[in-house]
From TrEMBL:
It is an enzyme of class 1 (oxidoreductase). Its EC number is 1.11.1.-. InterPro entries: KH_dom-like_a/b, OsmC/Ohr_fam, OsmC/Ohrsf. This is OsmC family protein. Keywords: Oxidoreductase, Peroxidase. The keyword Oxidoreductase applies. It comes from Lutibacter aestuarii. Signal peptide: none annotated. One of its GO terms (molecular function) is peroxidase activity.
Amino acid sequence: MTNTIEVSWKGQMLFESVAPEGSVMIDADKAVGGQGKGLRPKAMMLTSLAGCTAMDVASLLKKMRAEVDDFKIEVSANLTEEHPKYYDKVHVIYKFFGSEFKKEKIEKSVNLSVERYCGVMEMFRKFSEVTTEIQYFEK
């Protein structure tokens, strides 16, 4: 299966990325001529990672009947100093909100995403040290 997107220049450092499912704006930092009208490319990579594993976890939580009130994923990454700059360390924090957590099922959902299902996570492992953590917030 081949996925294809098209990126079109919208002036200055602004671009629109169009995929069959929708579009997103990409822009550079103001220091290099951007206007702050879109995500920067490296932030989009972290967004892709969080989105991929979030979809896995949401689906698995539903299948395992381990619903939570809410959950968020925070991704922080270390950018190398030398060009080409890339993320050499990435930390993914899964934050679950609610009460009476079914922790065993929640942890199984996260682990299945991390170890088996999330293709973006696997791609990141090719160039980064990826670590994960689960946090619970009782309401």
